[in-house]
Amino acid sequence: MPVATIRSAAWPAPAKINRFLHIVGRRADGYHELETLFQFLDRCDLLDFEVDRSGEVQRSGGLPGLAAGDDLAVRAARALQRATGSPAGCTVRVAKRLPAGGGLGAGSSDAATTLVALNHLWGTGLGVAALADIGLALGADVPVFVHGHAAWATGVGERVTPVAPDEPWVVVVDPGVNVSTAAVFGAEKLTRNTPRIRIPRLDTGSLGNDCEPVVRERYPAVAQAMDWLGGFARPRLTGTGGCVFATFPERAGADEVVARLPRQWRGFVARARNTSPLLGRLQEAQECRR
């Protein structure tokens, strides 16, 4: 007999931006010590889950050419199974709207949404801290997506303190470059000794991204996109990725920039948010269950 399934749709996996990113040291294990300010965008991948009792985790959709076993959403589901001993299974359907390798945290966000959604749907009952710990083994950015609040982050990005910076309109330009995080962090020219900031700063206008010089040098298309966007506002690199962004106080100004975007690039306008839309979707699911 076929296994009965229950479908739960439209779980958002939002993009993130780093309003700044400083590398303040390097640990003995080779990982870098960071200081950064994470903020969400209301642009999201969308994940649907078909939950069953098969004990198998399968995937539908996702990035072409990416094996299911390498997909962070699938890996997150299997990690939750191992951590909880859940006999449940699922099919994860990923509708991609965020570019891979763009520095927007797309894979990490998919993983976090999978952990949060399946913890609810499978009834595994873990708290946020436990889910974040599982997520950290999948990627340094996953915990901030699990917590769901804009955050001042230190360590490798896993130590997060909720903050509430301004929520501007954001223009994101994607020059279509998949940047290797490992290559950027392994570059000899990367600055690794930026002085620490003792008090979390929300006025990020004077702060930059230590990865930017390396990415600009190695990926000329990213440098070109930054130079073009710099004709309208201060351009910034998010994370180590290929996407660049600038902030605007009003949507009209942001829309005008995207309307002038050169044809060889993609771009979009989004609103920066201090609360992830994932938390709203979880609350909605919890209320439906009552």
Topology:
Blueprint: E1 6-26, E2 32-52, E3 57-61, H1 72-84, E4 89-95, H2 106-121, H3 128-136, H4 142-147, E5 151-155, E6 159-162, E7 169-174, H5 181-185, H6 212-218, H7 220-229, E8 236-237, E9 244-248, H8 251-259, E10 266-273, H9 277-289
Parallel strand pairs: 3-4
Antiparallel strand pairs: 1-2, 2-4, 2-5, 2-10, 5-6, 7-9, 7-10, 8-9
Helix pairs in contact: 1-2, 2-3, 2-9, 6-7
Approximate helicity band: 25-40%
Strand percentage, roughly? 25-35%
Q: What is the fold-level CATH name, i.e. the topology?
A: Ribosomal Protein S5, domain 2
The secondary-structure class comes to alpha+beta
Which geometry do the CA atoms define? globular
Pattern of helices and strands: EEEHEHHHEEEHHHEEHEH
CATH C-level label? Alpha Beta
Average of pLDDT: 93
- The separation of the N and C termini measures 30 Å
